[in-house]
């Protein structure tokens, strides 16, 4: 009697976790390079619209809650761990939805990269700075708030979650 191969349910949880670890490693390596090369507030122009900088963010996106008295550090650390546990549960619950799993893996990798910063330093190290004159009405001098690889992974994940939902709705029609 032949054993039928089990139908593929999609990439394993281990693969998604490895991808999250890759995001974390890239994020932490780049931040370590910035910390070793730049002092707080240093700026190195690369192109007319892009600088490498060293900025410390004690808050969340766009420095939300940066002026709080310190409780936000532990709030964001806890939130990162709770979100990661929930994301692992979602990946295990939807293993065949590759775009969705990729999206939430990027969010988890980015969130944990920033959690590591908060645990090690008490703040998140940001170092990518873009300037576009079209942003001047929104941001002083047209400088978009500085960010890092973890933030980029979170943004990519959010875009992919939206794309996955749009595709899912279209398939349901």
Could you give the count of β-strands?
3
Encode the helix/strand succession as letters: HEEHHEH
User: How much of the sequence is in beta strands?
Assistant: 5-15%
Helix content: 55-70%
> What's the number of structural domains?
1
Instruction: Give the integer mean of the pLDDT values.
Output: 89
Radius of gyration: 19 Å
Q: SS-based structural class? A: mainly alpha
Q: Looking across the biggest beta sheet, what order are the strands in?
A: 1-2-3
Oligomerization: single chain
Low-confidence stretches: none
Shape: globular
Biggest sheet details: 3 strands, antiparallel
What's the helix count? 4
**CA-to-CA gap between the ends?**
42 Å
Annotation keywords:
mainly alpha, three-stranded antiparallel sheet, 3 strands
Write up this protein.
It is a single chain. This protein has 173 residues and is mostly helical. The chain has one domain (13-172). Helices cover 55% and strands 12% of the residues. The chain contains four helices and three strands. Strands 1-2-3 form a three-stranded antiparallel β-sheet. α1 (13-37) runs parallel beside α3, α2 (71-93) packs antiparallel against α3 (98-121) and α3 (98-121) packs antiparallel against α4. The longest helix has 25 residues, at 13-37. It is globular. The mean pLDDT is 89.
